Amino acid sequence: MAPLPPDRHLLRAKDLIDARYAEPLDVEALALAAHASPAHFARSFRRAFGETPHQYLLTRRMERAAALLRGTDHSVARICAEVGLASVGSFTSSFKRTFGETPTEYRAARPPAGSFAPLPTCVLMAWTRPRSRAVSEKTGVGVAV
Amino acid sequence: MALRLAHVGLWVHDLDDALAFYTGQLGFEIREDVTLEEFAGYRWLTVGPPGSPDVAFTLNVPGPPLFDDETAAEVLRFVAPGKTGGFILNCDDCQETYEELRARGVDFQQPPTQQPYGIDAGLRDPSGNQIRLVQRLPLRV
Q: Which chain A residues contact residue B66 at CB under 8 A?
């Protein structure tokens, strides 16, 4: 059996970033996953994927934060924590550097998540159907159910 | 006619518990999470595995207005022992994923087992929904 090429281990670290971006990942933890020393790991990662592990982790976090701003009503502070960042201040500046807008501006420029939540018709029908009692009170007509 | 899978409904006993499991332990992403005041605070919450960006599970607690309390309790009585079906996730390395998920406290009912089609393990979400974890053997041509 041929030995695994070293880049296979680098890919393991890359997958770890994509999967565990919400956790406080540091270079040591990633290097461990890649079976490499931290200094050697960062260099090899950059050679293999064209960016440092830190940059790759940050872009994953930014991509997830943007998706959460579009698809949820979570607060900016909550989203910051959900993508694994501790400081809302540095989250906001990283976000602005990446997308040209602050998280709040980014969200405000898009339709609210609730307006395009794809609620199935069965759910909409159940929630919007007037209760029998309300109908009878309004119309004064008794409703037999 | 090309039909594509988009959302699959899962009954759970508690949305926050389910969310903690699917995102915190299983590594799913939140796709949508909005509370709709116009529907008495109904929460549209969907999650999905990062490897399948087009597919999401909608998490719902059975209850009014779709179900009365009695029916809702009955649904959960079927979910709890895993009688309502479930779903299968593919992974690259079943043993490695099993160990990683166990370390995160996931409740496995079956450890990785060799099957003709690959290696298969079984786990449950906190409500009882069954989830299989499968590492497929490469197809022989």
A: 122-123, 126
